[in-house]
Amino acid sequence: MEALFVYNKMFIQMGFKAVFGLKCPRCKKGDLFNKNGLIVYSDMLGMPERCSSCELKYELEPGFWLGALWTSYPLVILLEMPFLISALILDGVGVWISFIGLVLAFLIAWPLLLRLGRSFWIHVNIRAENEDLM
Hints:
- By secondary structure, this protein is mainly alpha-helical.
- It has 3 helices and no strands.
- The chain has one domain.
C-alpha cells in the first residue's frame, strides 16, 4: 500500500511538472508549443501538430482548444481579484492606480494564462502513459 502511495505522489508531481513545463500529456517529454517558455509574446499559441516524442496528435478535434478558455478563466480571476478588491476599498486616485495595475498585470500575464490554459486542458483530456497503474 505504501508503494502505491509513493507511486501516486510521484505521478502527481510529474503531472504538475508536465503541465507547468508545457510538455506532452502522454509522454511528458515533447513540447506543447513551438517556442519554449511560459511568457512568449510572438507566436504564443503556435503548436506542432504532433508530439515530437510520442506522435500524439494535440488537436483532437476541430474546436478542441475552445475548452481551454474554461481552464484559463480561473487563472484570470486569481490574477485580477486583488486589483478589483483594492479598487473597491480605495477611493479617488487609488481606484485608477488599481485599474492601471490590473491592465498591466493582465497584459504581462496574458501569454502565461493562454499557454497554461491550453496545457491544463490537454492534460485533463488525455491520459498519460502508465496512468492505468494507479
